[in-house]
Amino acid sequence: MLPPAPSHRILIVTDAWKPQVNGVVRTLTTVAGELQAMGHVVEVIGPDRFRTFPCPTYPDISLSFMPQRRLIAMIEAFQPEALHIATEGPLGLAARRWARRTGFKFTTAFHTRFAEYVKARTGLPVRPIYAWMRRFHGAGQGTMVATQSLRDELVARGFSNIRSWSRGVDLDLFKPEPREIWDLPRPIFIHVGRVAVEKNIGAFLDLDLPGSKVVVGGGPQLAALQRAYPKVTFTGPRYGEALARAYASADVFVFPSLTDTFGLVILESLACGTPVAAFPVTGPKDVLADAVGKIGSVNTDLRAAALDALTADRRACRAHAERYSWRACAETFLSHLVPLMDPV
User: Fold this and answer.
1) What span, in angstroms and rounded, lies between the C-alpha atoms of 200 and 79?
2) Average of per-residue pLDDT across 102-127
3) What distance in Å separates the CA atoms of residue 339 and residue 311, rounded to the nearest whole number?
4) Interatomic CA distance for residues 306 and 298, integer angstroms
5) What integer pLDDT is reported at residue 50 of this predicted model?
6) Strands (E), the chain
7) What distance in Å separates the CA atoms of residue 189 and residue 205, rounded to the nearest whole number?
8) Each residue of 44-57: pLDDT tens digit?
9) Measuring CA to CA, which residue among 137, 112, 145, 133 is closest to residue 23?
10) Is 9-168+326-336 CATH 3.40.50.2000?
11) Mind listing the pLDDT tens digit for each residue in 141-157?
12) What is the DSSP letter of 57?
């Protein structure tokens, strides 16, 4: 833990950064902003500051090309008091090598089920990938995870020194009003997120549901899904108030992913008063737990969950989302950081 001080110099190294649009980028961007508002000096080093190449099978994501020398110069120029390595990509690996070589301490986070994503794209088994990830994170002083169920799973896989770090939602942006006016039959079942194979969106689009289906987002699978499901409304990416209006206008948000570690979109939907239907997996089963009133449904039968969620209480959805604060998220993150060096 960092010693008490009005200001710390905090360095975050991440392979997921702007202009990418995903939960990791949203989390790091918002937490960095909250920490700065608290008086800390925060530097984020991402791929946007390096030569890059497209990620194999996912060209929308840029990966840093041989970043070691330039990254070390940036770290040494910033002179951090604490180092957080957010991802396991080229930048994360380079930062980890530097810290290990110099004897400096750092923390990590488990944001993404990298093993499952690789398997979805290549068919490679998850076990050796998890073994590699266990070594990657094990070199740090603590690995932050977003949910209790993910924490339990990683402990079962041999990970150690796991630290709980929940998420937040922008309650001023995501709210029940105003709503988009859809010229579509009701009820409207919506999905928001990256349109990629690991999101399992086909499981939603294949459901026999009344009314209409809407998908908001972009990604490598968008064109293929548009061809395969011509009756579905695909809006493409939306941001800010336009995104909030889309959430608020739907009757149910369907979250078909089996591999997310949290699902910020779940909180965004609830903040807009829209109940959630999902499989009973890490993320939705954690976020929807302990609600006062009905805010959605989880079921191994996703169609049953979607239909059941139609009877949820939209006011209870909003009230549950109000329990999640980005300031609390940033404070928890800060509490888990460790000094780069032990006191002399």
Assistant:
1) 42
2) 89
3) 49
4) 9
5) 96
6) 9-13, 41-45, 52-55, 58-64, 82-85, 107-109, 143-145, 162-164, 188-192, 212-216, 233-236, 252-255, 276-278, 296-298
7) 10
8) 999 999 999 988 77
9) 112
10) yes
11) 999 999 999 999 999 99
12) T
Residue 265 has pLDDT above 80, yes or no: yes
The pLDDT mean for the chain works out to 95
Domain boundaries, the chain: 9-168+326-336, 188-321
Q: 177-200 pLDDT, tens per residue?
A: 999 999 999 999 999 999 999 899
Superfamily of structural domain 188-321: Glycogen Phosphorylase B; (3.40.50.2000)
Alpha carbons 52 and 68: distance in angstroms, whole number: 13
Task: Tell me if 173 sits within 8 A of 240, measured CB to CB.
Answer: yes
Residue whose pair of structure tokens reads 């896989």 in the numeric block: 157
Please count the CA atoms within 13 angstroms of the CA of 194 that sit on its side-chain side: 20
